[in-house]
Amino acid sequence: MPPDFLVSMAGGLILAAAFGYWFARSGESGRGLHRRFREYAQRLPRRSEKAVSAYLEQAEEESSEPGAAFELAAYFRSGGDWRRALQIHESLAAREDLDAATRAHAGLEIGDDYRAAGMLDRAEEAYVRTAEYLPLRLNALERQLGVCEQLSDWERAVRIAEQVRREDRSLGSRLRCHYLCELAAQAAGEGELRRARSYWRKAARGANGSARLLVDPAVLDAGDPNRALAHTGSNSLAAVLVLLGLAGRDGISGKELDELIEDQVSDNPALGPAVACALLMAPELLCPASARCLFASLEERLSSFARMYGSGRPEEFTGEALEALVCEFETATGGPPLWRCTICGHQDEAHHWRCSECGAWESARLISVLSPSTSE
């Protein structure tokens, strides 16, 4: 007979194998359900509506872990079938056997389903209900703000941003600043500058150095362009935007523009590259002072261009010469200066405070060989 220790070892191995098999089987239903959801999703075009409903019922009965259901719902919504996604999410939200966090997450997804369908009022109702679950309150409030942004309802957005500030002070303050600036821009567009200034003052409270508070008042209420540009001395990106906003304005051209730029660059040489970059984007900013800034930047970063176009005196630099320089500059550097979102990478020839692709605020940065450095 074999020794007792060999019998014990063999018995232990058999027991371990049995436990391993049991654990594998216990997890197989969840993993198998995920796999069947994915396999089923790939065959959806060949399935009837009745088969879809039957499968969803079966999946709900089988799965105590709802991850597979969320996965299939996401598949439906990404394909434009928000109704089926909504059916799954409503079923999950109504299941009393699930924990509060899972049901609240389903509530957020219900709002996203309605938003995908363009039913913004119902989407917001779902987000408001979900906000009652404190761990997901911030997520729900941010989604409510997304609805307000779609509707351009800036007054309500300001109120919700105040609630966001209680959950995340930095985020809430930043969003509140932009919403108030949107209201200020509307007021300025209607000629109500006094009301616009009131919004800007409110936006400045807790705005954490937003470049927009330097740019919007300077461009939309440019009573004193010299003072407006002076305020951007610590932010070259803001200086570019102010110059672009002032470009072509009545009375801001020729000798006045030349004096404006000359005074500011002599007081703050760091503005030179900002002036050069703005000139490439808005040729109407051409004057002796802006031409000198351009020549200096070209000599520093692109000496071949400086030699080609800087042989004469800046005051003799013409619009035709600038047009030719811009064309060659774009050919040599791959295109004109662009604005790129630092969040999603979306590029645009025009500057926007809110990215049209991902919705991020104040995320655009200038891409150009002559782009000035930005101090935030």
Name the beta content range.
Answer: under 5%
What's the Cα radius of gyration?
A: 30 Å
Strand order of the main beta sheet, please? 2-1-3
The low-confidence runs, each spanning 5 or more residues with pLDDT under 50, are: 5-31
DSSP helix fraction = 55-70%
**Largest beta-sheet details:** 3 strands, antiparallel
Oligomerization:
single chain
Mean pLDDT across the residues is: 81
Query: How many angstroms does the end-to-end distance come to?
Result: 82 Å
Task: Report the order of strands and helices.
Answer: HHHHHHHHHHHHHHHHHHEEE
Structural class: mainly alpha
Concise account of the structure shown:
With 376 residues, the chain is mainly α. The chain is built from 18 helices and 3 strands.
Name the features.
376 residues; mainly alpha; Serine Threonine Protein Phosphatase 5, Tetratricopeptide repeat; three-stranded antiparallel β-sheet; 18 helices; 3 strands; 67% helix
